[in-house]
Specification:
about 5% helix; Hepatocyte Growth Factor; 2 helices; eight-stranded antiparallel sheet; seven-stranded mixed sheet; 4 domains; Jelly Rolls; mainly beta; single chain; Transcription Regulator spoIIAA
Length: about 400
């Protein structure tokens, strides 16, 4: 494709003699999904993504030729060396060739990859449906909001913790120096989340507000990355609103972050902000623990010398992954399977994304009764997987019972 290039996803750059040599280089690299060939300089850039997966990064460049790798391109997510970010990205990459099944994904922990199941028929999730909770002190306490400075000249409080969307305890966060370009407002999420959007307001009284800002993010708190646009330049977010008006800003590329900072770069009278952050999943879809042991699989027959019991499992959110399968079964499991006497199964269909958080009955099969024991748990559909809130087994008969997994 003449006059186009994919920016920001290059993993290898070489000088070659021709477009054909660039194609050969790509075919010999497992990670190569596409390439840019720059005609005057004969520079070949190998990309680990395509224009289908990163449309915001596909830009005009009159000196470049863009080509998707063929004919032996490794499908995105099909190997640990080529992990995907989301099931949606796999669908975009592979189109009609994408089928439900197990794929490899980048973990929330940098440098790690994990296998997980994708149901290509599941609904997509709207990012703005899931605020992280900056607007609520009960979710993000005051001590998790900090700032480079704050003013004490206003009649209302302008501390960092006043910088919450719709907060009226003070006047919003306002920097000490009205027109400083070196100040910031920081939120500590206390866990790594996928940030897909932010929302902003100005001050409560309508006297001052930020009109432009940048974002930076960090996983550790002492090394920061400025959010970039598709050309690799610092992304500047523009606000249309004034004080009370809420502006929503979707991030073209979702980022993993434990901390995020808002950096005002322009303002009306004063650097004043109230903010919220959004994730592409509700909190339980990111703050879960993994159940990965093979003993949970419905196909595993009990070993009397290795009897399992989930009496002490939880309380917490759990996701089935790896050898444990990808979800709880929804039909009765044979006795003495899943590494226990009484295997547990979900006594109804899994919820849809639209149903949100639902209560479901888990039954445990014993003495030829598929629901001899039972307990209610919470379940959420996270788009491409399910999470379950588990707090042990039925108190009336806690052992030997186990929550089973299946593919």
């Amino acid at each position: 494709m003449n006059g186009k290039a994919l920016k920001g996803h290059t993993f290898k750059t070489s000088v070659v003699g021709s477009l054909f040599e660039c194609q050969v280089l790509c075919e010999n690299e497992l990670k190569c999904q596409s390439y840019n060939y720059f005609i005057p300089s004969k520079i070949c850039e190998l990309n680990d993504r395509t224009k289908e997966t990163k449309p915001y990064s596909f830009v005009t460049d009159e000196n470049s030729v863009y080509m998707k790798s063929w004919p032996n391109r490794v499908p995105l997510g099909s190997t640990p060396e080529m992990p995907a970010e989301t099931c949606k990205e796999i669908k975009a990459s592979e189109g009609g060739q994408a089928v439900s099944g197990k794929y490899w994904f980048d973990s929330l922990e940098p440098g790690e990859v994990v296998p997980a199941n994708c149901d290509m028929e599941m609904e997509e999730i709207n990012c703005f449906d899931y605020p992280v909770g900056v607007s609520s002190p009960a979710i993000i306490p005051d001590n998790q909001m900090t700032a480079s400075s704050y003013t004490t000249t206003n009649h209302s409080s302008c501390r960092a913790y006043n910088g919450r969307l719709n907060d009226t305890r003070g006047d919003g966060w306002c920097s000490e120096v009205p027109d400083s370009n070196n100040d910031w407002l920081q939120i500590d999420f206390k866990r790594i989340i996928q940030v897909c959007a932010v929302a902003t307001q100005g001050d409560v009284r309508g006297n001052g507000w930020v009109t432009d800002f940048k974002l930076s993010y960090s996983s550790v708190g002492n090394v920061w990355t400025t959010y970039k646009d598709v050309n690799g330049a610092d992304q500047v977010f523009h606000r249309q609103g004034k004080g009370a008006t809420i502006d929503q800003h979707k991030l073209p590329i979702t980022v993993s972050a434990k901390y995020i900072r808002f950096h005002p770069t322009n303002r009306h009278k004063w650097n004043c902000l109230r903010v919220e952050a959004y994730s592409n999943h509700p909190p339980e879809c990111q703050g879960y623990q993994n159940l990965t042991s093979f003993h949970r699989k419905t196909t595993l027959v009990l070993d009397a010398n290795d009897m399992r019991c989930d009496r002490t499992l939880g309380p917490g959110w759990f996701r089935f992954q790896g050898d444990a399968g990808s979800k709880m079964p929804t039909s009765c499991v044979l006795e003495n399977h899943c590494g226990t006497n009484a295997p547990g199964w979900l006594n109804s269909a899994h919820p849809t994304v639209a149903e949100g958080l639902v209560s479901k009955q888990v039954c445990f099969n014993w003495l030829s009764n598929c629901c001899y024991f039972s307990i209610n748990i919470q379940v959420r559909n996270c788009g491409s997987y399910f999470v379950y809130f588990i707090n042990g087994t039925p108190p009336s008969n806690p052992c030997y019972l186990v929550y089973c997994g299946t593919d």
